C-alpha cells in the first residue's frame, strides 16, 4: 500500500467558499484604510493565492505595504475565514469523504500536508472529522514556513513504502547547465519517464502549469516552453497525483 500525501485547500476542501469572501473583505479594509487602491478581484485571481502560505502570500501580493500592515491584513483574513468556517460556510468537495473512506479501507496511509497554520489545521480536523481518515498531519507553521517539498523531505524517511503526492500544483525541478540538463532529460526519457526541458534566461523565473488534455490517450498539456508530467486522478474528487522528473536549462 502507498503513502498518499494530500494537499488540503483546493483539493479536498472547497476553500473558495470561505477564502474568496474573506479575501474581498480584507481587500476592502485595506482600500478603505487608504493602503491600496479599490478594485474588483475575480475568483480566478483569488484562487491563485491558495497555493501559498499566508506569510509568502502577503509578501508577494503587496510587498510595498509595511510589514505591520501586511501582518494585520493576514490576521484579519484568517479570522474572517475562521468565523465563516465555524458558521458552517465551509465544505469538502462532493465525493471527497467517500474517496477518503475507500482509500483508508484499502489500507493506504493517508497524510495531510498543507501550507496552512496549526490553528487552521486543527479547526479543519474538528469541523470535518479528518482524524478518521488521516494518519499523519503536517503543516508549514510547524516547520517554520519552509516550502512543502522540504517538509516532505523531512518526514518521508519516517514512513515506509512508496509516496503519491496528491493535489499540489507545484513540481520541483533542479536548475542545471545546458549539457547536464540534457543528460538528465535523456536518462529520464530512456527509463520510460515523462520528461521535458525548460529554457530559463539569466535572472528569469518560470512556472509550469500542468493540465490533462486527453485522459483516454494519456496526453498532457502545459504552457508553451514548459514541461508536463503524467497525472493520476482519483474518482470522486478534484485530487490528482503528479510524478515527474523535470530538467531546467539556462543560458
Q: What is the CATH fold-level name of the largest domain?
A: Rossmann fold
- CATH class of the largest domain, anyone? Alpha Beta
CA-based shape? globular
- Helix-and-strand structural type: alpha/beta
Total beta strand runs: 11
Low-confidence segments, ≥5 residues, pLDDT <50? Answer: 207-251
What is the rounded distance between the termini?
43 Å
- Element-level helix/strand string: EHHHHHEHEHEEHEEEEEE
Helix run count:
8
Q: What is the helix fraction of residues, given as a range? A: 25-40%
Query: What is the gyration radius calculated from CA atoms?
Result: 20 Å
Tell me the strand percentage band.
Answer: 15-25%
Largest pleated sheet: 4 strands, parallel
Give the mean pLDDT.
79
Taken together, the total number of domains comes to 2
How would you describe this structure to a colleague?
The chain is of the alpha/beta class. 37% of the residues lie in helices and 20% in strands. The protein is built from eight helices and eleven strands. The protein has helices at 16-32, 43-48, 54-61, 67-86, 96-105, 118-128, 148-155, 178-190; strands spanning 3-6, 109-114, 136-139, 163-166, 174-177, 195-200, 210-214, 219-222, 231-233, 240-242, 245-250. The strands form four sheets. The chain has a four-stranded parallel sheet, with helices on both faces. A three-stranded parallel sheet has the order 5-11-6, with helices on one face. The longest helix is centred in the first third of the chain and has 20 residues, at 67-86. It starts with a strand and ends with a strand.
